[in-house]
Amino acid sequence: MAIFFHNADINPQLKHKTALKRWMRDQILSENHEVGTINVIFCSDHYLIEVNRTHLNHDYYTDIITFDYCEDKLVSGDLYISFERVLENSSKFQKTAQNELYRVIIHGVMHLCGYKDKTKSEAILMRQKEEIALQKIQQYLNS
């Protein structure tokens, strides 16, 4: 199967697509899952809030919405990412935009692998998983 990057209503210049795909794939495999079809869709705040309202009945901005189409161990889904929210959060959390984007992508992947973040303990585990994955990303970008 495959991982695809798409642009909805914006066109950010995403670097290292091949390395990002390998990183995502290896993270999924390390969780004892298989890679299905994953679409990463970059969009604006306006686009994502409409997705949030229409499909989830939520009326607030977010950096990512993950639609899970997984079957058993086959990881498939759509990751809608607000590039505007990523940029704002990178400033807010004093991270580079690239680091924040990678964190959001891996956050969506972790959701597809079955991790939740609704409770405090779930959120702590999710952050730990994100940090471990982020520590590995440089290996992929430099290879």
Q: What descriptive keywords fit this protein?
A:
Collagenase (Catalytic Domain); globular; 20% strand; 4-stranded mixed beta sheet; 143 residues
Describe this structure in words.
The chain is α/β, with parallel strands linked by helices and 143 residues long. It has a single domain, classed as Collagenase (Catalytic Domain). Helix content is 52%, strand content 20%. A 4-stranded mixed sheet has the order 1-2-4-3, sandwiched between helices. The longest helix is centred in the C-terminal third of the chain and has 22 residues, at 120-141. The chain starts with a strand and ends with a helix.
Helix residue percentage: 40-55%
DSSP strand tally: 4
**Mean of pLDDT:** 95
Order of neighbouring strands in the sheet with most strands: 1-2-4-3
CATH topology: the name is Collagenase (Catalytic Domain)
Radius of gyration, CA atoms, in whole angstroms: 14 Å
How many separate helices?
5
CATH class: Alpha Beta
Q: Topology as H/E string?
A: EHEHEEHHH
Walk me through the topology.
Elements lengths: L2 E5 L9 H14 L3 E10 L1 H12 L7 E5 L5 E9 H10 L4 H16 L7 H22 L2
Helix pairs in contact: 1-4, 1-5, 3-4, 4-5
Outline of this structure?
With 143 residues, this protein is an alpha/beta fold.
